[in-house]
Structure formats: structure tokens, C-alpha cells
Amino acid sequence: MVKHHNLRFVILDGGHARFVKPAADNALHTEEALDSTHAHSRTSDLVSDRHGRSFESGSATRHAYTPRHDPHDLDRLRFAQFIGEKLVTESAAGAFNELVVVAPSDILAALTNALDHDTTAKIIGSLAKDLVKVPDHELWPHLKEWVRPVHRAG
Questions:
Q1: 22 within 8 A of 16, measured Cβ to Cβ
Q2: Separation between Cα atoms, residue 34 and residue 17, nearest integer Å
Q3: Among 71, 73, 99, 122, which is most exposed with the fewest C-beta within 10 angstroms?
């Protein structure tokens, strides 16, 4: 019987995430893909139609100040936090015992900050790179250092 170390890769950017696992042949396969619409219920109702013009959706009220934070950047960071919370839940359920996180550096920081101590302890590596749109069959050169050969029970 072939056994992996229950390794999971999470590959994300500010709006998309993929959960990737090695298969018996050491090929990498996406098991689940999410986008920011899954976390939409957690976003604010504050939107901006142009820099410096923000308004509450459904309201004609305008504000004369420039927002201190770009709403798009905040949405990206909220999505990373949403994925972090999902990983904490799955880690507690035993879905994986080793984790590699792959994301652009700002998203990587937001993701790791959203993890609890137990999930953080399962991280065996990280890569500050945007690989969300890289197909499964092209991930190997980027992630192979963390995939160990499968163990075959004798």
C-alpha cells in the first residue's frame, strides 16, 4: 500500500486558492479550488467607484476623504484570512499533518498570521510566489523539494 505523509499544499493569491496534494505517482493534483466569492459574505459593504470616492452600496451618500486603505487590497487580505481559517479547521480535523504555503509575500504573511499555533507547527515550507494559474502538471519544478517519495508498506 502506498502512503504519503499527508502533505497538503495551499496555493493562493488575493482572489483564488487551490488545495493540492501529491498522488501515488508523486504527481500533484488539485483537490479543491476556491475563489473570493466563497468569502464574499465576510466582505464589507463599503465599495469605491474611483480612488477618493467611496460610498456605501445602495446609498447616494458620498464622502470627501480618500480612504486610508485600498478596498481591493483589504479584500485580498480578507480572502487570505478566510483560507487561513479553513486550514485551521481542516488541520484540527486531521485533514493533513504537513503543510506548504505558496503565495505572493503580502498574502503569505496574511495567511500565516491567520493560522493558530497547531496549524503553524505543521508548516514544513513556504514559497513567496504566485502559482495559482500554473496547471498541476507544471507545479512539480516549484514544489518538488517538499514531496518525499511514497512509502510502500511491505
A1: no
A2: 5
A3: 73
Which cell goes with 18?
Answer: 487551490
- Lowest mean pLDDT of 6-10, 32-36, 43-47, name the range: 43-47
Strand-pair partners of 75: none
Given a contact cutoff of 8 angstroms between Cβ atoms, the answer to whether 57 and 47 are in contact is yes
What contacts 40, CB < 8 A, 6 or more positions away? none
Q: Where are the domains of the chain?
A: 2-152
- Sequence-distant (6+) residues with CB within 8 A of 69 are none
pLDDT in tens, 102-138: 999 999 999 999 999 999 999 999 999 999 999 999 9
Contact by Cβ (8 Å): 76, 15: yes
Q: What are the grid coordinates assigned to 45, written together?
A: 459593504
Instruction: Assign domain 2-152 to its CATH architecture.
Output: 2-Layer Sandwich (3.30)
